[in-house]
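Hey, can you fold this one?
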Amino acid sequence: MTAVPVPVVDLCPEDFRRRLPELVALYAAAMRYPEGIVEGRVPLWDDHSRRAGFACRIALDPDGRISGLAYGYTGRPGQWWYSEVSRGLGPHAAAWMSDFFELTELHVRPDRQGAGLGQALLTDLLSDRRERTVLLSTPEGTNRAWRLYRRMDFVDVLRDYRFTGDPRPFGVLGRPLPLPPAQPA
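Sure. Predicted structure:
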């Protein structure tokens, strides 16, 4: 698929909450999850939008349809993901988690994948973060997500990690912030 410029725009927490069904439906399509997952994710994502440092970027098609999204917030003690990753890192947690942005979700609609949209969303989302590091988790396996994170200089923080309640192995990846300035095309 050829890269086609798509506008990346900031979505404020209120608009994020208003568009939650549409955003979670995109997530379900991108991850190839059953549609029933939408109902359970809406309250969780609503909670995320109320956390300190919340930021969301979306990409819009010319018709105004959302073709991709990326969001996260400042990670803090007491949050589930913070506690889970901290458990996995043990005494090494502070090196990564003392001041970090949790990249919670990054998804591109299946018909728009492979055109550089994920990288555009990620770059835009992380371009003005003030945290020292960014962390994320993604299911293990070779796929576009892993290739994107490697291109963006994410390194292994934890591999084959199992979060409480999920039997799948995950990789936890991180990198220092800020991102280097974008290179001219």
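The helical segments are 13-18, 20-31, 37-48, 80-89, 93-97, 117-126, 144-151. Let me know if you want another pass with a different chain boundary.
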